[in-house]
């Protein structure tokens, strides 16, 4: 098996406070155990493997998901319910046969997810529908067209097909935060088909009462039930609540899925039954080949225009032109990797710094990267410097990666990553870098910078650094 084809998910570790990369397939094992019994039919387990994978992929930043809501730069954390102690114990207690079954469910559905329009769906499921699943708008308020009501009698043998509990009126009133009227002995209560037609005399004694389908006079009722007086009232104190099904009824009915599998249906047929209009597909290859999918990057070629204060080489090479060339190459390469790229200028024109900042703060890219060439009165000086704003840790991390690759893959030397208080770095509300790629005042480097191939290598290195930063 090719290890590289495996997908890793970023998990926050609470105890150590660090990020751990885990194989998606390993996490799926745990999720399946949290979703359904291992005794389920293998086709039902495969359906669960695909559901688990779909929900994970949908969450992962790598695939454009929102990631963990609680931990930055993570997809999940080790506090997820499916990574809890009881699931871990379940996993450890698996017989060899069941462990093989679990692995088979995952391997036989390798890379498969449930999609609509090529996007992973919100693959909901519940224990037992009790006769029909539910439309999404009745549960979560939004109309999701693949979460439609379907009839299901497959779950009749579920242990949760029917259930009943008893609850005190007092508890019900507390949980619902509602009050039942205090009953006085001379008040009437009617519970349709149970207690009806209570007739009292003028002083409050019950003259007759209908209970169930029989009518009693007050004295008869008092004597038969051996109560103290015909001056009484009736109020319920406990309710018995009978339920059918278990869970919210959204998406796949677990016990129904198992029965379908027992009846010879495949995981595909099962999933297509409970999710309307879906496609089961391999995780989009371009997704894997597009490590920057979902990222928005703003590239800022410095200077531009006629009165530009850019550096000019001894041979007349202009900073504003070279950085624009690099920016365009960078745009192509980053877009190939799946990113959305915006340039602050696409031609040799004057764009005020304040305008660049304004646009960036409107677009709010993941990163804003300014490109420049450096100058020094001593023409022998050369190399790259990268600047970031103080305390911008994300920028430092990105700068480290870019610098490492740039100084390895090209002959540009590392002159350090430094803090700066430049206008753009300070005023922009997102992480940003200012890269002084090379010294144009060094005649030797000026010659190199006129070589398209060299510029290509520079932009490739920067792209690689960005991919490395976002790598999972
Ligand atoms: Zn069902
Ligand atoms: Zn400059």
What does this structure look like?
The protein is an alpha/beta fold. It has three domains: 3-153 and 247-285, no CATH class; 164-243, no CATH class; 290-470, Aminopeptidase, CATH 3.40.630.40. The chain has 15 helices and 19 strands. The chain has a six-stranded mixed sheet with strand order 15-14-16-19-17-18, covered by helices on one side. A three-stranded mixed sheet has the order 2-1-3. Strands 5-4-13 form a three-stranded antiparallel sheet. A hairpin with a 2-residue loop joins strand 9 and strand 10 (214-217). The model has no long low-confidence stretch (mean pLDDT 91). Residues 128-129, 152, 154-155, 253, 256 line the site of one zinc ion (ZN). One of its GO terms (cellular component) is outer membrane-bounded periplasmic space. It holds the Pfam family Amidase_3. Keywords: Coiled coil, Hydrolase.
- Structural class by helix and strand composition: alpha/beta
Radius of gyration: 34 Å
Fraction of residues in β-strands: 15-25%
User: Could you give the distance between the termini?
Assistant: 19 Å
Q: What are the distinct ligands in this entry?
A: zinc ion
């Amino acid at each position: 098996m090719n290890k590289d084809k495996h997908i890793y998910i970023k998990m926050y570790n609470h105890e150590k406070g660090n990020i751990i990369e885990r194989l998606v397939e390993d996490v799926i094992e745990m999720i399946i155990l949290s979703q359904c019994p291992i005794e389920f039919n293998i086709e039902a387990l495969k359906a669960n493997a695909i559901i688990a994978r779909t929900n994970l992929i949908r969450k992962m930043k790598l695939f454009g998901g929102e990631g963990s809501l609680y931990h930055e730069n993570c997809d999940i954390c080790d506090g997820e319910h499916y990574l809890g102690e009881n699931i871990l114990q379940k996993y450890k207690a698996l017989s060899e046969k069941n462990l093989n079954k679990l692995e088979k469910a995952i391997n036989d559905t390798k890379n498969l997810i449930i999609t609509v329009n090529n996007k992973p769906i919100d693959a909901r499921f519940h224990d037992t529908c009790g006769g029909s699943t539910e439309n999404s708008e009745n549960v979560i308020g939004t109309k999701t067209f693949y979460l439609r009501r379907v009839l299901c009698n497959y779950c009749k043998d579920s242990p949760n097909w029917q259930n009943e509990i008893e609850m005190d009126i007092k508890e019900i009133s507390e949980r619902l935060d509602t009050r039942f009227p205090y009953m006085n002995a001379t008040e009437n209560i009617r519970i349709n088909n149970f207690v009806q037609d209570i007739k009292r005399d003028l002083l409050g004694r019950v003259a007759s009462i209908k209970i169930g389908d029989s009518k009693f006079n007050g004295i008869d009722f008092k004597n038969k039930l051996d109560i103290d007086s015909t001056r009484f009232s009736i109020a319920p104190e406990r309710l018995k609540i009978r339920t059918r099904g278990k869970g919210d009824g959204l998406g796949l009915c677990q016990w129904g899925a198992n029965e379908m599998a027992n009846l010879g249906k495949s995981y595909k047929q099962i999933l297509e039954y409970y999710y309307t209009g879906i496609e089961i597909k391999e995780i989009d290859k371009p997704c894997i080949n597009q490590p920057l999918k979902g990222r928005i990057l703003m590239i800022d070629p410095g200077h531009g225009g006629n009165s530009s204060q850019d550096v000019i080489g001894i041979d007349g090479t202009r900073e504003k032109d070279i950085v624009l060339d690099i920016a365009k190459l960078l745009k192509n390469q980053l877009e190939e990797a799946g990113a959305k790229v915006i340039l602050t200028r696409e031609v040799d024109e004057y764009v005020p710094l304040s305008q660049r900042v304004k646009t960036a703060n409107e677009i709010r890219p993941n990163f804003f990267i300014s490109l420049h060439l450096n100058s020094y009165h001593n023409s022998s000086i050369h190399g790259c410097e990268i600047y970031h704003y103080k305390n911008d840790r994300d920028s430092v991390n990105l700068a480290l990666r870019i610098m490492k690759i740039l100084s390895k893959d090209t002959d540009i030397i590392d002159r350090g990553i430094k803090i700066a208080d430049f206008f753009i770095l300070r005023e922009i509300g997102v992480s940003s870098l200012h890269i002084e790629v090379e010294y144009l005042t060094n005649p030797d480097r000026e010659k190199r910078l006129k070589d398209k191939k060299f510029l290509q290598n520079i932009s490739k290195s920067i792209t690689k650094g960005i991919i490395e930063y976002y790598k999972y």
